Amino acid sequence: MRKTLFLSSAIAIVLLSAIPAGAQTSTSTEEGLSSANQALLARIEKLEAELVALRASVQQSAQTASAAKATAQSAVKTVSTVQKLAKVGAAGAYSGAPSDAKWHLAGYADVGFVGGDMPGPDSFVTGKFNPGFHFQYKDLLIFESELEFSTTSDGETTTELEYSQFDIPINDYVTLVAGKYLSPIGQFQERLHPSWINRIQGAPAGFGHDGVQPTSDTGVQLRGTVPVGNTRFTYAVALGNGPQTTFEGGVKLEGVSKDNNSNKSLGGRIGFFALPYLELGGSYLTGKVSGYAPPVGHEETPVTLAADVPVGSSAQDQARYTLWGMDAAYTKGALAARFEYLNSHRGAFFSPTADDPAGVFLPRLGMKAWYGQVSYRMSNVGSSDFIHNLEPVVRYGQFRITGHDVLREENAQDRFNLGLNYWLAPTIVTKAGLEWRDFRVAGVPSETLYQFQIAYGF
Amino acid sequence: MKTMKNNRIWIGTTLVVAMLAAAPLAVAGSDDNKNKASKPDPMQVVRGAKAWKNNCGRCHNLRSPKELTDEEWDVSVTHMRVRANLLPLEAEDIKAFLKASN
Fold first, then answer.
1. What gap in Å lies between CA B64 and CA B43, rounded to an integer?
2. Residue of A179, A221, A419, B1 with fewest CB within 10 Å of its CB?
């Protein structure tokens, strides 16, 4: 315990001492950038206001000649200001014809430290390195892919293809996506999971691997937006290989390159923007799952946890899986509040094994999870740059599982996070936080973790 | 067995329709590109600034226009157009703004 304390204070000191250094460098570079941004925004807002005033005066101008003159003068002024704005840094912007094929290398990386009352020792975590590649050919299509490199606890490097997809715009309202894509169900996977975007070190309970939220799928998606007056709807409809059964008898919600049943999953999400900064969403996914299929080349026998077959059971060798969910995001200025809820069920069925062709009985499995998160960037508090870069965050969530005792004991929990982030740049953040996990199963002790992380999105 | 067949026909048709729908785009796409080499329209820059402010800070912090080159913004904004479900016109306006401010 003393070692833990020592280690954590050492890390806290290192982090704290890194901050002022970062703050100093950022005063010259980053501060300059964001004040340029702010100046630009302020200017644009001023211009917008002028345009509104201009419109009003145009209406009046029909009545009085002097008003017409004023309108003309202000129009000249507005146009010249706008032209000046367009010139800011525009030199070279349009020099030369654009090339047909363009590309961009992006991605993110993080490293961290986790300690506290949990099974296993405190440790530095290597984190992840996720390079992302985007290749665009004219306006015809873009290919995007992201790899994830990480190191396992025994020192092996793992590589995963996070996604690899073609995006083909069909018309103003429809884009076709084909390949392995991040699941459009809910918000966390598709939008918030990269560590430079995520306000907390890890995912909310139930929103990572082995959770309720699908991480990815392989298939096709149609997606886009439909403006309706001042509001807009967004949609994503996906037809994919769909969920499968895991070794332990759970549901695997990751994109695979070969389906194990002919039934494709159909799902997606509809979003509604009442205001540009307020989004409400609803998601749905349905498909059938078959028994556990060992990966090619592994003839292992599945240990899907069998249960007693209820009397009169009419379970088949496939079961229906359905998921529905709701989400909301309010992101105005310094404040971001998010909420997501997902609820899924898989029916009871027999999963065949090598020993038992009739299959072991897997009872109905229910999983649901939700979280709410609020973060506040203190950019308007006080006059110190140090304070402006701070961002407190709080998140609370629950993950519940019924019908599978082992999965429930390992994963079901209430999770509460408190964190304080320091932004060195818009995409570089140091995060310090506390996480409480209450497993809510008799005999499984709760955990208190303290976590540090540095993440950079590039 | 029957559902399997139905399923296949259905998926097959969807894929063929999607591919055919994408075909005319090849032509439209190349035309679009030609018109773009001209100077930025100041009003487009203003519209772009507004669309940038409204859309680009929803999931992550706004990045400074100076972070990327023109060509990188072209690719990245197309990437974000798909991720954030933006209209192509909005994406064009945002690109014009970012390129005029980097």
1. 20
2. B1
The whole-angstrom separation of Cα A404 and Cα A360 is: 14
- For β-strands A265-275 and A278-289, DSSP reports them as antiparallel
User: How much is the ipTM here?
Assistant: 0.76
Asked whether the beta carbons of residue A102 and residue B71 sit closer than 8 angstroms, the reply is yes
Q: What is the pLDDT of residue B102?
A: 86
Residue B42 has pLDDT above 90, yes or no: no
* Ranges assigned E (strand) in A276-334: 278-289, 319-332
Phi, psi dihedrals of residue A26, rounded to the nearest 5°: -70, -20
For the stretch A198-240, pLDDT in tens is 999 999 999 988 899 999 999 999 999 999 999 999 999 999 9
CA atoms lying within 13 Å on the CB side of residue A126: 14
Cβ separation A100–B33 shorter than 8 A: yes
Q: Could you tell me which chain B residue has the CA closest to the CA of A195?
A: B60
pLDDT average, residue stretch A440-458: 91
A14 is written with which tokens? Answer: 């290192």
Cβ B79–A104 below 8 Å, yes or no? yes
Q: Which residues pair with A402 in a beta bridge?
A: A366
C-alpha to C-alpha distance for A389 and A384, rounded to whole angstroms:
9
- Judged by DSSP in three states, A360 sits in strand
**pLDDT (average), residues A355-368:** 84
Q: What is the pTM of this model?
A: 0.79
B85: Cα separation from own chain's centroid: 8
For range A381-404, the mean pLDDT? 95
Is A454 within 8 Å of A110 (Cβ atoms)?
yes
Examine the pLDDT at A25 and tell me if it is beyond 50.
no
What is the H or E stretch that residue A295 is in? none
- The three-class DSSP label of residue B43 is helix
CB distance from B2 to chain A under 8 Å? no
What's the one-letter identity of residue B57? G
